[in-house]
Amino acid sequence: MSEQMEVSTSASVAQTDEYITFVIAGQLFGVPVLKVQDVLSPQQITPIPLAPPEIAGSLNLRGRIVTAIDVRLRLGLNGRDEGDEGMSIVVEHDSELYSLMVDSVGEVLQLKASHFERNPPTLDQKFREYSDGIYRLDDKLLVVLDVTRLLDYGREVAA
Amino acid sequence: MDDLLSEFLTETSEGLSTLDVEIVKLEQNPNDADLLGNIFRLMHTIKGTCGFLGLPRLESVAHAGENILGKVRDGELVVTGPIVSLILECLDQIRDILNALEATEAEPEGDDSELISRLNAAAEGNMADAPAEAAAPAAAPAEAAPAAAEPEAEAEEEFVPTPASETGNMNVMAEEPQAEAVAEEPAAEAAPEPVAETPAPAAPEAPAAAPPAPAAAAKKPAGNQEVAKESSVANQSIRVNVDLLENLMTMVSELVLTRNQTLQILRGQKDSEFAAPLQRLNHVVSELQEGVMKTRMQPIGNAWAKLPRIIRDLSLELDKKIDLVMKGAETELDRQVLELIKDPLTHMVRNSADHGLEMPEDRIKVGKPETGKVLLNAFHEGGHIIIEIVDDGRGLASAKIKEKVLANGLATEAELESMSEQQIQQFIFKAGFSTAAAVTSVSGRGVGMDVVRTNIEKIGGTVELKSVEGKGTTFTIKIPLTLAIVSALIVACGRERFAIPQLSVVELVRASGNSEHSIERINDTPVLRLRNRLLPLVNLRELLKLPPQEAEGPVGSESDEASETAEHAEMADAESKSPEDTTGLIKNDNFIVVAQVGTYSFGIIVDRVFDTEEIVVKPVAPILRDIQLFSGNTILGDGAVVMILDPNGIAAATGEIAVSGSAAEGAAERHAGNNAETVAMLVFRAADEAPKAVPLGLVARLEEIDLASVENSGGQRVVQYRGALMPLVQMDGKELKSEGRQPVLVFSDRDRTMGLVVDEIVDIVEDRMNIELGTEKQGCIGSAIIDDKATDIIDASFYLQQAFSDWFAGGERGDGAEEGGSKILVVDDSPFFRNLLAPLLSVAGYEVTTVESAAEALELCEAGKVFDVIVSDIEMPGMSGFEFAETVKNNTRWANVPLVALSSFASPNDLARGREVGFTDYVSKNDRDALLHTLKDTLAEVRGAA
Fold this sequence. Notes:
CATH class of chain A: Mainly Beta
Number of strands of chain B: 35
Number of helices of chain A: 5
Oligomer: heterodimer
Number of domains of chain A: 1
Number of strands of chain A: 11
Distance between the termini of chain B: 93 Å
Distance between the termini of chain A: 39 Å
CATH superfamily of the largest domain in chain B: HPT domain
Low-confidence stretches of chain B: 128-234, 437-447, 551-585, 656-677, 808-819
Shape of chain B: globular
CATH topology of the largest domain in chain B: Four Helix Bundle (Hemerythrin (Met), subunit A)
Mean pLDDT of chain B: 71
Radius of gyration of chain A: 15 Å
CATH superfamily of chain A: CheA-289, Domain 4
Shape of chain A: globular
Mean pLDDT of chain A: 81
Number of domains of chain B: 6
CATH architecture of the largest domain in chain B: Up-down Bundle
Helix content of chain A: 10-25%
CATH class of the largest domain in chain B: Mainly Alpha
Helix content of chain B: 40-55%
Structural class of chain B: alpha+beta
């Protein structure tokens, strides 16, 4: 397993990659498992005033402060229903921790590069922006989320 | 980067900064063998490592430097200014190459043969030819290696003339003309000067250099010992990566938090067997925390290491003699803080040396020692580090600052007029402000003190400034010991808790509808009256765009483990569940955190205030960094994350920071500065419930008399007071009680005193008078709103006359007769003073006309009225007193009428200014006696002259 781990996450050159899958609004997503530090059940989150709406707040993960991002809102989808608490995937980006709030977390899948495809150009602009491409699974499609781009707020401001 | 290389870079740059310091020390103390040995070793190490790593260019430069140092060590060369300059130049070159090395990981191309040949020549004891030869080759490599050649070319300009001036500095009997001539023709003239040939001819130079040396040695024994101490300490230390320390710090913080939680659980259980081990754990963790904190501490001397070199270079460049004294270099502070104050400190020291200190000639002229002194002093004080930068130079020239302020439009003349010297000096912290008449290469470029202040305030520090013209300037910097752990006040707004650094919190005020303090509004902007000052308020709820009050659970209740803080929250919540105003954003019951940023105070309205807590500041995620209101976030003892509010950010977001007095001046003075027209009023109660007031200036003393000692004399109640009888007057004329004690306001005039019996002395209030006139009541001038209440202003003269029917008639009348009803014009915009002065003056026998503005007075002048004296206020709307005086003196028929200025605010500056524009005299508004005397004198003078 460890040899495969070293493969870059950009996915285009890899033979097989491991992904953690999760579901948002019925759609299956995946992030490279190497990026993931933790999977969390709902936590106590401190909202941050004046922050963009998709930033749900910050939480304390074993003494480190983690910024929670509601991926639904980041992707331009509707917010979760009241009472539906969802789960979180903690990723590291620029040596900061972020908790990605999703509806539910699935399993770890090994995916073959041959099943990978670029985003169809007709995809929603936000999806295209934050996704690396699509894996064709047997029964459904998995959207690979590009964590770097998802969290790169600086680039957006500059653009 | 290669580990080996990066280690080499850190080590070498460290070595270089030590060398900088040591070489300058050596110059002052050329016979110190230990010092010399140390320097040689350092240079040798640099050279050796270069060879090892395969850096030929660096090696050759270092070798040449080592060579010359070797000769010095072996006694073949004598340490002189030029040699030191040359060695320092060599160090600069090494540093340039190192910088390039760091950037590109390869040695830059370039030619050092010129420098090396000069170094070698000097090592041969032949300083003379080197510069001359060097001039030509220096131009050639300039194109080939810009990176290396540029500093060289600069060095060429800077350093070639230095041998001459340097010798001037070293040599006690410096000869100016010679120095100048040398500067013209450096190569030729410098030749005979310094290190002539080895041992023998160096002898004449030696005695010249020798005298300053013992002096320096005598002054510096402490410094030398320190060096010895430090180096022995250095042997016992190991180099640790900073990241590792940071990590340790984080872990320890986490451990502390966990310990707190555990202790919390323990508290809920009685007789737990965990109690003893947990106690032990508690102590160990505390000690561990302290220990790890200490690893981050560094002596402030590290930030000062560059300064001796800078000062030395400066003294050569500016041709000044500067003595840099550093005290408290061992004072420790957090590494992070140290990094942040390094640049501001360097800038300020440079400023002091450049702007602050005068040229030697000027110093001698004003009777100061020729050598200027810059003192750096660091010490601990109450959880802070205080750094003082003191120079004994020329101080700040208020006049120059004023000109500059006016020229830049930072304030109007009238505003300046009402400012204290200190306030005017504060302007140097404004952007784009430099008073250096000429821009030197050192300072005076118009960036400076404002940047310094901003940088220091960024780390939660303050800068204060004290300066006496001609005596020198003192800057006092106050900074927190560490940025990592700060004491913070935890407040709540809505459901959220926030931390405010305790450092910027001045006080807490509870404002509610029925307490003394309540929030008032000006066009929906909330303000608070606090000790007779309007405090601007910021509503945190609005600022953070939090949802309004309704539908809120208690703060902290979502936390599963009910921590102490959460319990507090609930308690506070229960307490504040009074009827809440759900319509407005501010309810009746509020807590106000009074914060101070620099000199700007403001209140932050919050819902609740909890405890203070020691918090570990953590930076916010990059995506949140553009929210100015937060300076970081932290994890509280109960495990919750809270945002740390940045008072600087809040101040910047809600209002601009005004230049006003320094923080130490206190509210009162600032108040006086902003509102020149305010009057101190003594508020008391007497006769009835309505508060009464009298200008404090009229009251001589406040006494309390024993009613039993009141006697009757001639139908009047009197009391023995200071060996005389003092008549007592009561406002309502009622009988006094026969026993008990009662406060008395004592009015006095020459040898007479009178006591006004009152029920209670309430307060002394400094306020702008808004007199509402038209009282019919006897003994009352009118009423004003003081401290939010309608207050009668009593007419002191009425009661004086009650006590002594001849109070004004007696002495004054006699004088008045000879004055024969002189005509006085009183110009004052304040109805209060017009009404106070008019009766006073007319009682004294003058014929008084009052007008409320300068314009009105000039109309009277046009109309041909004649007055013997004009008494004019200074601070008036429209035309000020100064302008009025100028107009009168310049071109009206009143040009010869004496003018007396009247102001509630008399500083020496005002006096000078007043005389300049033609005022005969200057009287403080509240000094009745002085006014009468002045009028009498003025009139006498006029009569005498006529």
